[in-house]
Task: structure prediction
Amino acid sequence: MAGTGVASALAVQGRVVWALMLREIHTLYGGDRLGYLWVIIQNSFGVAVFWGLRYFMGFKAPHGMSVPAFLISGFMIWNIFSSLILKSVAAARGNQALLTFPQVTQIDLLLARAGVIVVTEVVVAVLLLALSFYFGYPLDTPNWAGTLGAVALAAGLGLGLGGTLAALNIIMPILEKLLPMVFRILFFVSGIFFSLTAVPYGFRAYLAWNPALQLIEWLRVSLAPAYPATYVNVPYLTLLSLITMTLGLLLERRVRRYAAG
Result:
């Protein structure tokens, strides 16, 4: 009987998250004539601009990767990681009315937004990689375990940090204004445009603490066998993801009581 109750509760929450995902897609893209296609065009344009600049500058991707695969892997992980954090904070404050329904929790809101973001970024990356292959850029057979692991941990870490900061933002709303400024700096130091091996040796150990950079490097290792995995620390990324998700869950409960009181 207990197992049936748990399964029923999970089924209800699953339907809630799915409904919130559909609402999220409609809210973000339903008002545009291109709809969901617009976000694919928008994300593709960002990669294409840097791809074009690198092409005309004669940039060669390191360690045998093609330029498109190098940039696409960097942008995909960065967009999952940063968008989950920034939009989770916005979702928590922008959807307070939904939390009046007993079936809806802040975790459901975060999971729904995470699902939309991850699926969107993966679709964009696959389409761009297929397009680059069509134009003659070689692609190695990926290490699927590493590829899925990098994407999953990017989502887990983004969700954990996003949930933690979303809860703190209820108490300290200034976080929502500070985070975009912080992420503008992180954008240039997270390895989207460079390999960690290109950084002077004395700075590598410090930059390697950046989980976004490590996640990008891990995905590149999985896409190109010749890419060095020297600074990829999977246990560190896994532990950090678990810690932030646990902290986010604990803070969510505490902040819920704070907001109610």
About this structure: Residues 209 and 237 are 10 Å apart (CA to CA).
